[in-house]
Write a structure and sequence with these properties.
Number of domains: 3
Strand content: 5-15%
Structural class: alpha/beta
CATH architecture of the largest domain: Alpha-Beta Barrel
Helix content: 40-55%
Number of helices: 23
Length: 625
């Protein structure tokens, strides 16, 4: 075991084609919690890594490594394993051939790789164990120990656990071992007038489900990847038909490709697809709808020409709800060409269109702050701002997506507190013209590549979802089921069916145990109540300050100022670090299973303590508009 000194610098890189950044942000936070410096490669580094064989890109990477005094290098690639092998191999070759490794007199002592299990297996074998690999299954402590961090300096806040989480795990483990979920049958969703027609919608279906006392609507994000465009569409059409035949799934969320979002209807030529279903015409969308009846459909919004693509989704797919990201899926996360302000302008224009169609809106927003190290209060406030903005522009139905386990080392009781605080704030906006539907889901990097363990995780997080509003048998309204194969491979119809069966059975059995007093009713859990009230107080303080100090906050310019002045926190922002310097300057830390804003000494900073600094930064922005 080599000795790891406190002056080590960890560099984390990825090729720009891979937009999965959550794992990098998570490991960066853990390392910083242990007192180490972490440098994350920006978009220029990511572009260079993607085409490292070009001389100017090699020079750029070497310069970045040297200037930042990188001693440990982490490489992440969560897409195709063979491409991961090729891309990582080229980077490793350039580093070794230029004598940058410590064994050859250089500064880089170790190189790490994080990717899909197959990619990790290939790279571990190819480099004979010299490269430590991470499949995403590791606990925070396991990750740090693999890197070489001594247990003695890993903070207790990372090492501690939660009794509530342990109890849910035992429940879920027992459920999976019994395998009764395999006998679960689908509910009959038919019986209302619009069912299976082009006017079918989630409002009618939820009303029907509640009247019949059925389990919540089930939504799954799905889409095969195939570099051959025609083969991909053919395979997905067959999947959609099978899912409709199985009868478990209510909502197909089409996992469209990056090109579908950014260059819909254009000639893609040799542009990289970036994973996902390469759908490129309204005719194809409508064919999928016909193949998948009576299921409802939704898909990603565009990353440019956003209002126009929303119209296409509406007319060809009868999209069951539209999802927008406000500050995200643009230049600052490498997902689109728009500036943040232009993105907000296009999204508000799209909101007006959504309202005119009387369609629901889902904010694909809060978890993107969490992905970038944001605190739990920013998560809650961003959801509330999205809801109030939607209501302002006439949206009548709001689908509140709530990504649990984000970051994945969040304690369950904190997830409950965060969920309840967010739900209470957003539901405070409800009236006869504005309705909120709750849609919880598991975290993006929550699942293990060990499929049996992942099934237990799915059952466990389902119990967590049901504890958000445990005394309401009609909640949640919708469950976004993340298939248990998420960390291993794309979910097929068979895996999707089994994942939904696990979810339904876990809901059924967990409710029976709670009703019988065999598991604690978390509605009365004292610590969760305390945490909920603390989050509500902090979030309401921030919202009150926003509304008191930013004229017209629920406009593109107002929402821009909210982020740019530091009301919302994102310390691991990839791009726009100068433009949003007030958002990245606040440090966050994991404290007893929650993410808090802290000072240079690791002490928590309250919202009221932050406000004088935020308001001063806000005054500096006045000249922008």
């Amino acid at each position: 075991m080599y000795k790891l000194y406190k002056n080590e610098v960890f560099g984390l890189i990825r090729p720009n084609i891979d937009a999965h950044t959550l794992g990098i942000s998570n490991i960066a936070k853990l390392l910083e919690e242990c007192g180490y410096k972490v440098i994350i490669g920006d978009s220029m580094v990511a572009s260079a890594v993607a085409e490292i064989s070009k001389l100017n890109n090699i020079v750029l990477l070497v310069k970045w490594l040297d200037e930042n005094k990188i001693s440990h290098l982490g490489f992440s690639y969560r897409l195709d394993p063979r491409q991961a092998q090729i891309n990582f191999g080229k980077v490793y070759y350039q580093i070794r051939s230029r004598n940058l490794l410590a064994q050859n007199g250089g500064k880089i002592k170790r190189i790490f790789f994080a990717g899909l299990p197959e990619a990790c297996r290939i790279i571990k074998n190819e480099y004979h164990g010299e490269v430590e690999v991470f499949v995403g299954d590791e606990s925070p402590v396991e990750s740090l120990k693999k890197i070489g961090i001594p247990l003695s300096i890993i903070p207790n806040s990372i090492q501690e656990g939660s009794t509530y989480d342990e109890n849910r795990w035992e429940f879920a483990k027992s459920l999976i071992e019994k395998s009764d979920f395999l006998n679960t049958k689908p509910a009959n969703r038919s019986g209302y007038k619009s069912f299976g027609t082009f006017s079918d919608n989630i409002i009618d279906r939820i009303d029907h489900v509640k009247a019949k006392h059925q389990y919540p609507l089930m939504r799954v994000h799905v889409g095969p990847y195939n570099p051959n465009y025609k083969d991909a569409m053919k395979e997905f059409t067959s999947w959609v038909k099978q899912l409709a035949k199985d009868g478990f799934l209510d909502i197909v969320s089409i996992g469209s490709s990056q090109l579908s979002q950014s260059h819909f209807g254009e000639d893609w030529k040799d542009m990289p697809n970036g994973g996902g279903l390469p759908i490129n015409s309204s005719v194809e969308y409508h064919q999928l709808w016909k193949a998948g009846r009576p299921m409802l459909f939704r898909t990603y919004a565009g990353t440019r020409n956003i209002p126009q693509l929303a119209r296409i989704h509406e007319m060809s797919l009868n999209i069951c709800w539209h999802a927008l990201s406000f500050w995200w899926f643009c230049q600052i996360d490498g997902r689109g060409p728009n500036s943040v302000l232009e993105n907000l302008n296009q999204h508000i224009e799209t909101l007006k269109y959504i309202a005119g169609c009387n369609k629901p809106f889902e904010p694909n927003i809060p978890h993107h702050f969490a992905f970038r190290g944001g605190d739990d209060v920013s998560y809650i406030v961003s959801a509330y701002l999205a809801a109030k903005t939607a209501k302002k522009y006439g949206v009548k139905t709001f689908v509140l997506q709530n990504m649990l386990n984000t970051p994945k080392y969040t304690w369950g009781i904190q997830d409950l507190a965060k969920s309840r605080a967010m739900l209470r704030m957003v539901k405070s906006l409800e009236d006869k013209n504005f309705t909120v539907f709750l849609q919880p889901r598991a975290g993006l990097d929550y699942f293990s590549p060990d499929l049996e363990k992942a099934k237990v995780q799915l059952a466990s997080v389902t119990a967590l979802m049901d504890d958000i509003d445990p005394n309401n048998k009609l909640s949640p309204d919708i469950i976004h089921v993340v298939s248990y194969s998420e960390a291993s491979h794309l979910a097929t119809p068979k895996v999707i069916k089994e994942s939904i069966q696990i979810t339904i059975q876990a809901l059924k059995e967990y409710r029976q145990l709670r009703d019988g007093g065999k598991v604690e009713n978390m509605a009365f859990h004292a610590e969760t109540k305390i945490r909920t009230e603390d989050l509500l107080n902090e979030a309401n303080t921030i919202v009150a300050a926003i509304e008191s100090n930013i004229p017209n906050p629920y406009t593109p310019e107002g929402l821009y100022k909210v982020f740019a002045s530091g009301f919302l926190v994102a310390p691991y922002l990839w791009e726009g670090k100068d433009e949003f310097r007030n958002a990245i300057k606040w440090d966050t830390s994991l404290i007893k299973g929650s993410v808090k804003i802290v000072d240079d000494y690791g002490e928590m900073i309250s919202a009221s303590q932050r406000l004088p600094f935020i308001l001063e930064d806000l005054r500096q922005l006045k000249n922008l508009f």
